[in-house]
Amino acid sequence: MRITEANWFEVEAYLATDDRAVLPLGSTEQHAHLSLSVDSILSEKVAADAAEPLGIPVFPAVAYGLTPYFMGFPGTVSLKLATYAALVRDILDSLHATGFRRVLIVNGHGGNSPVQPVCAEWMEAHPGARCRFHDWWRAPRTWATVQEIDPVASHASWMENFPWTRLPGRALPETRKPFVDFDRLRDRNAAGVRELIGDGNYGGLYQRPDADTDRLWAVAVEETRTLLEGDWS
């Protein structure tokens, strides 16, 4: 169940028999011709689709993350690492205080990965609690499916283009963009990143047939659900 569609009585009743929860992490950053909220939309939806048949609560996606390299694109919002680490820790503390003991973090933004040690620190501070950090798009089976469909895939390309991340009435380029030089990205400030990547797509087609992305989505949901159902001992 999505927390946005539940009241506290229902959550308390759930906690009488289960202690799992899902926390999606997203970001607000440029995604070329797609929504600035792609990472939040995808992390929350894959979490909700995975958890729905299990009845596990899914909390609203944290809409802001770590994305300083995209600050040259208007609409992007980036938190400082210390701020973000404190935010994630406070959320986990709140979940623990109200009865949750097993938390799956479904991350939708690669830039958020530096907060993974927060999960380890939190478990050390809360014996018996468990926290898993899941980058949904690059989990083994999901990434293998991306490679099978089209290995030229990256940020803001077809692999993030779903009906729920497209913007109505906006035309998409029909070309296949060459991969950017990732080595050159590593030592650029935000202005330099924008100059290097242009519209924001890192490389690949902007859109593929829905049959391809439907296949990718089904694998991602199943792989995420497996983590929720798996052995937490």
Automatic annotation (TrEMBL):
Superkingdom to which the source organism belongs: Bacteria
Cofactor: Zn(2+)
Family annotation (InterPro entries): Creatininase-like_sf (IPR024087), Creatininase/forma_Hydrolase (IPR003785)
Xref: Pfam families: Creatininase
Alphabetic keyword roster: Hydrolase, Metal-binding, Zinc
Gene Ontology biological-process annotations: riboflavin biosynthetic process
SUPFAM superfamilies for the chain: Creatininase
One GO MF term: hydrolase activity, acting on carbon-nitrogen (but not peptide) bonds, in linear amides
Family of this protein: Belongs to the creatininase superfamily.
Protein name: Creatininase
Originating organism: Roseivivax isoporae LMG 25204
